[in-house]
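Here is one chain, start to finish.
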Amino acid sequence: LYNDENIKTVYLIKRFFDEFLIKLKEYQSIKTQFRIFKRELLEIIEYNKAIKGHYNKKMLFSFFKKDSILYVICEDDKVIHNSGVDKFTINIYKQKLEAHDEISIHYKNGEIFAIKNEHFKAILISEKKLSSFIKNIVKGRLILLNYIYKVEDNFYRDKITSLYNREKFLLELKNKEYRSYAIFFINIVDFKKINQIYGSNIGDKVLIEFSKRLKKISQEVFRIYSDRFAILIPVKSYKIYLKKLENIEKKFSIDENIKIEIDIKIIYFKNRVENIIERANIAFKKSKKNIILFDDIKKILDKDKEYFDILEKSLEDNISIGGENAKKGT
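Its structure:
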């Protein structure tokens, strides 16, 4: 029987179930978001371990694969990961981001979303409209990348010259492993005398000015230590760079009119070489040639080894290096 009371009861039950389903949906949404935020936290902790640069940036955005979202990530305008976005679209939205920090455009049944911060840009192409939640995740991850970038950059910068340091040089060598490349090792001749005569403050100013001149030649310049620098260059271009270095020995107009002389060693490797800096130091000390191949350094090392082998044998045989018997005292 459908009396008013029964209708009211049915209505209340229906409304209860409607509200219950809405709450359940909200609960599931909150639960899902909680799981994602929890994953965010765990991943941030994990990537925090990688603050010195040994991390894979694209892994921060790998969850897009499940949502059929194409994306591209740029670091200082250089594409570091692309899951399938065409070059034309990338260039268009990189240009648009010059004037805007964030762009959202309706695209077919979905959306194109682009965002930038100080050092990174992200461009997303989705088959459906992106939720604000996903957009906030992207923003958060770009903030994380930007933070890592700054900490990493500070870690790899020389404090006096602002060039990249020895650690960055070794990292770049590892990244260029198994490629043909050349290294210019450059040092200022008798730099210690500049410090002794003019003082360390003037010495630092010379290093800073010298670094600026090197940076005009190449962006891949590193201060290894003291007055020793390195430039990584493609093997085919080493003569061009060598010509550029010819004009670097000009007078430095600082507090004093200081003329410097530089020593350059070009070390050419086709493959990965262990202890490259130590080998370069040997080359500086013992080779008069400007262009050194790995085999040349090996010969220097072999010659040293041969000398010490002779010395060791002479001690065992109780004779001097000159061949005379040590017991004779001559």
